[in-house]
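Private note to self, pasted from the team thread so I don't lose it. Backbone tokens:
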């Protein structure tokens, strides 16, 4: 009898000695579970954010329904893991999923000093933590649901509990994740300005049952007035006006739009608003000198500046639509704001993609090429893309044509500045070469194609450190 009591006392001592370890493991299990629960719920309550992760790291763009199913399955595993059920299977499943996630992040891990790549290193200790919890799973006995013995797999007692967790999560999150994300039907209309006054530039407006969302505001008053008449013909309220970047052909007509739709907020990036107000590139003054009273004065521009600031990653809900904001840095312009309708597969890419019009890398040709790679990674090739100049179409071929054009332009300029100088004759030679490659493309900004190409040759040469002795410039 005393031997039994001694054995029980020894067992109590062992349990007491293990208690700090069990408490520590419980803290690690529950905190790690909370980390993964957010990861699972994101797919249900914020599918647009989750879809961006899939598009960036897994080359796929799952629907809201697929994301919700994945989130529910992951959530069930996480809740079972937090409750201490089926530890080998739940901990192992999370370890496998997170290891795959970290493998997809390897390029970010090997370049930790480029923001925000250092944040990805937070996932590395989580892999080690899960591995430790898997090894010590039988010592993890604090704050767990009671189990019969130490089963090696699903038992008759624990399986129903895990199933109840999954069903509870399904009932709570399915209406939020799926029912609230029903895709709205939209129609996109476009008005293209007539080249008679300047050049052809597009204004788009998205029609939903609730109203209209206008993208771009033309350059000169007469074309803005004509676009407004088309918009008003639908007889629906304008819910918002979007300005994609700080070039005059996208905001010169804004006073006309503000007068016609005074209740509509105007959205733009902070850099776009600042450039419009400060005229740091001199575009406002140059256009006013050229167009006179059909272009706004600086005072009129200041009185009609956008009043809503948007930034990369913002989610905007308008007219029953979810709009995702993507902001890219200096390339064609100082900044370019793209608008993406994930439920409809529609992208508004501003002037980052042109169709039949001479692209002008006014800020940086090389980063423009980088931005095109980013767009190709984030969006499917069959995404419908609406642009600033030219007809809309599937993203894949339009993006490929834009990339090819920029590479041809870059190569022509590099060949011309072998001596570190671009003179007028060399600028003209670049223009002739590009015209022979793209004979049907049009000029922009009211400038003939040949003048645009000569001016662009000088801009690109300067970006590459060459001395420019050509006086070709945009008017």
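Design output:
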């Amino acid at each position: 009898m005393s031997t039994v009591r001694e054995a029980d006392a020894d067992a109590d001592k062992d349990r007491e000695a293990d208690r700090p370890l069990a408490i520590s493991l419980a803290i690690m299990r529950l905190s790690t579970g909370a980390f993964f629960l957010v990861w699972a719920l994101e797919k249900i309550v914020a599918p647009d954010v989750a879809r961006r992760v899939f598009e960036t790291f897994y080359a796929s763009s799952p629907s809201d329904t697929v994301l919700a199913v994945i989130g529910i399955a992951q959530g069930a595993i996480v809740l079972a893991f937090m409750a201490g059920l089926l530890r080998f299977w739940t901990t192992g499943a999370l370890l496998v999923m997170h290891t795959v996630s970290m493998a997809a992040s390897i390029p970010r891990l090997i370049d930790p000093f480029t923001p925000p790549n250092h944040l990805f290193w937070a996932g590395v200790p989580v892999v080690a933590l899960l591995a430790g919890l898997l090894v010590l799973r039988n010592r993890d006995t604090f704050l767990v649901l009671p189990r019969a013995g130490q089963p090696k797999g699903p038992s008759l007692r624990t399986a129903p509990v895990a199933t109840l967790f999954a069903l509870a999560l399904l009932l709570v999150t399915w209406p939020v994740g799926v029912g609230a994300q029903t895709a709205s039907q939209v129609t996109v209309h476009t008005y293209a300005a007539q080249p008679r006054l300047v050049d052809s530039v597009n204004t788009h407006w998205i029609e939903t049952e609730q109203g209209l969302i206008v993208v771009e505001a033309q350059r000169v008053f007469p074309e803005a007035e004509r676009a407004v008449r088309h918009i008003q013909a639908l007889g629906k309220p304008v819910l918002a006006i979007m300005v994609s970047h700080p070039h005059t052909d996208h905001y010169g007509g804004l006073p006309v739009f503000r007068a016609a739709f005074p209740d509509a907020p105007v959205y733009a990036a902070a850099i776009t608003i600042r450039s419009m107000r400060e005229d740091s590139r001199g575009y406002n003054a140059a256009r006013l000198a050229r167009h006179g009273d059909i272009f706004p004065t600086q005072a009129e521009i200041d009185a009609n500046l956008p009043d809503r600031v948007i930034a990369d990653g913002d989610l905007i809900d308008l007219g029953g639509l979810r709009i995702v904001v993507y902001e890219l840095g200096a390339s064609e312009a100082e900044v370019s704001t793209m608008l993406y309708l994930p439920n409809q597969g529609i992208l508004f890419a501003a002037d980052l993609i042109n169709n039949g019009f001479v692209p002008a890398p006014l800020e940086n040709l090389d980063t423009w090429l980088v931005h095109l790679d980013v767009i190709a990674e984030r969006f499917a090739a069959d995404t419908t893309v609406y642009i600033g100049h030219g007809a809309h179409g599937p993203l894949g071929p339009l993006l490929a044509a834009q990339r090819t054009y920029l590479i041809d332009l870059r190569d022509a300029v590099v060949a011309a500045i072998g001596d570190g100088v671009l003179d007028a004759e060399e600028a003209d030679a670049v223009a002739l070469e590009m015209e022979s490659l793209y004979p049907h493309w049009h000029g922009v900004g009211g400038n003939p194609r040949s003048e645009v190409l000569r001016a662009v040759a000088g801009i690109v040469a300067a970006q590459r450190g060459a001395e420019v002795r050509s006086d070709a410039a945009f008017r």
